[in-house]
Amino acid sequence: MTYYLTTLGVYAGVDIIACLALNLQFGVSGIVNFSFIVFQAAGAYTAAVLALPPDSQNGGFQHYVFGAQLPFPIPWIAAAVVGGVLSVPVGLVVLRHLRVDYQAIAMLVLSVIANLVITNARPFLNGAAGLSLVPQPLSDRFNAYSPTYLWAYVAVTFVCCALVFFVSQRIVKSPYGRTLRAMREHELAVTALGKNPVVLKMTIFVVGGVIAGLSGAILVGFITIWAPSTWLYPETLILFAAVIVGGRGNNWGALFGAALVPVGFEEATRYLPQFGPPGLVPALQWVAIGLLIIGFLWFRPKGVLPEKPGRFAAATPVVGARLTKEPGVS
Amino acid sequence: MSPSALEPTAGSAPATGTGLGVAPQPMMTVRNVERHFEGMRAVDGVSIDILPGRITGLIGPNGAGKSTLLAVLAGTLPASGGTVTFDGTDITEWPAWRRARHGMIRTFQLPSEFAELTVLENLLVAAPNHRGESLRGALLGRRYWIADERREVARARELLARFSLSAKESEYAGSLSGGQKRLIEIMRALMLQPRLLLLDEPMSGVHPSIIGEIARYLEGLRDGGLTILIVEHELHMIERLCNPVIVMAQGKVIGQGSMIELRRQREIVDAYLVG
Questions:
Q1: Residue in B97, B154, B188 closest to A191 by CB
Q2: Which positions in chain A have a beta carbon within 8 angstroms of at least one beta carbon in chain B?
Q3: Res A271: pLDDT
Q4: Which end of chain B is more exposed for a tag (fewer CB within 10 A), N or C?
Q5: Hey, are the CB atoms on A186 and B114 less than 8 Å from each other?
Q6: What's the CA gap between B220 and B164, in Å, rounded?
Q7: What is the tens place of the pLDDT at every residue in A6-58?
């Protein structure tokens, strides 16, 4: 039971972090990043190969590059950095000249291609079999299978959640976040007001990439395996469903959506009685997630917790007089 | 008024006479500007001058190339040929955001409000040089940018008061009427303290009662020294506001001058000023 609950806790934390990142990119800025899972995967692979020993030391049952066996937290930091660095070429290719709908298509194609490449390039990251026996953080000092360690891992995950939430709130509640929201509404009008849309999109895309990379590192450190089958493009759609259901543009909505869709909804449907041919129930899970997205877009497009407008202190009746309270977004 | 001002100027240096005596140095000079769409010449060798402190009208039938020319001048569409000079600087290759930072702000033919932002937020987006508008500023937190925010909120509220929209500041811009959205666009542009305002059909889709109001605001801005180029179909408003007026047809400039002078020209009346 402890393992189930802690696994659920870590997955919840990772999904919350991922949804907060996707909310910054898609919810706030309007970047339809259908390749989000690639950045999470890049972080996971980075953390894995930096924590693993050289592949020659494990009997040669898996092949991968680096195998640097670096101590915690270096693999996690490197994962975040790689998530951000990978965002730069992707963003420069996709976000500069393409229209939003073509951006979405390009991202989706990138996600499929990346998965296929990693699956088939076995010497790089062990192909379809993926990486296993990834050392848990500080497992050389603590018993990684003890309940204390598992709960501590959940706690660390939620500390990371809190940190990402804090950063996301700072962004969303700032004039920078306001400009990103304006860009989402009408990019050309923002450009005509002297804002460089490429800079705006690239910065938030890289921030999202950093957070996605971190989320991958946290997950692989707990489940100790990572393979192409864990980061297929539909995983991104689940995160999109969470942001849409929760309330795009609202960090609280992303948090709520992460708890509701990837965690609550998927866990609840896991216990459905099996019926019909094999694979029918898991397929129906996807149908249900699709219906959830369509239903919300149709009936409640702003989600359960809609984005809130900036609030400002009331103006004094006399123009030019001193304001009664400090104005500012809150 | 120079007689040449009434002649077509496509492909040649334009006349700057407007019937207002000695013309000042133009704020913007446009020479042989072209814009092609797969062989179709939407703007075909246009040369005009925009004089400072005046409202210049740009009229012509549908498909004349007015909005395309305005987009080329603002940088939202790249020119296929020719040069655009603003305050003596060649800005032909500049992207739109750089031109805007240089003081040249445009509005759009269709309402371009940020629908899910409030009216006040719409204006604040335009605030230039705000410390909180970069990722760094955002991460440094409220204390880092609150002074700028205070200043810009005060400026935005002054503008809202001037345009009689203070009561709407907390409403979503998308919920406003067509005319109010137009005013938001103009106010947003004014937040940047522009030197040249490019307005693309600011009266289109606006209730007649608000058209007069917009015209009054534009007159006030002109009297305050702002230079405006306006594309518009409401000819009585063009007549009231603009001098000079430039007439385009089929991508070319076919004449310019005051509306009274233009009405005397047969070819222009035939092309556009029917009735």
A1: B97
A2: 167, 170-171, 173-179, 181-182, 185-186, 188-197, 203-204, 207, 249, 307, 309-310, 312, 315, 319-320, 323, 326-329
A3: 77
A4: C
A5: yes
A6: 14
A7: 999 999 999 999 999 999 999 999 999 999 999 999 999 999 999 999 988 87
Sheet containing B89-90: order of strands: B40-50, B28-37, B81-86, B89-90
Q: In this predicted model, what pLDDT tens digit does every residue of B45-104 receive, in sequence order?
A: 999 999 999 999 999 988 899 999 999 999 999 999 999 999 999 999 999 999 999 999
What is the C-alpha separation between A185 and A197, in angstroms, rounded? 12
Beta bridge partners of A7: none
- Alpha-helix runs per DSSP H in A224-302: 234-246, 251-258, 266-270, 280-299
Do A77 and A50 contact (CB within 8 A), yes or no? no
Q: Could you tell me the two tokens for A213?
A: 């990379």
Select from B59, B116, B112, B232 the least CA-distant residue to A181. Answer: B116
Whether the CB-CB separation of A221 and A149 falls below 8 Å is answered with: no
ipTM of the complex: 0.87
Please give the helix or strand (H or E) that residue A111 lies within, else none: helix A100-120
What domains does chain B contain, in order, with CATH numbers? Answer: 3-113+178-271 (3.40.50.300), 115-175 (no CATH)
- Among A176, A312, A326, select the one facing B120 at the smallest CB separation: A312
Taking CA–CA distances from B161, the nearest residue in chain A reads: A319
Distance CA A143, CA A65 (A): 27
Share of chain A above pLDDT 70, in %: 95
Task: Using an 8 Å CB-CB cutoff, list chain A residues near B74.
Answer: 192
Whether A241 and A228 have beta carbons less than 8 Å apart is answered as no
CA gap A285, A279 in Å, rounded: 10
How far does Cα A294 stand from its chain's mean position? 21
Tell me if residue A96 falls in helix, strand or coil: coil
Reading the block at residue A76, the tokens are 């996690």
Closest partner residue to A188 (CB to CB) among B76, B118, B157 is B76
Q: Mean pLDDT of all residues in chain A?
A: 90
Residue type, A229: S
Q: Where are the domains of chain A?
A: 2-231+247-252
Judged by CB atoms closer than 8 Å, whether chains meet at B114 and A170 is answered as no
DSSP string, A165-223: HHHHHHHHTSHHHHHHHHHHH-HHHHHTTT--HHHHHHHHHHHHHHHHHHHHHHHHHHH
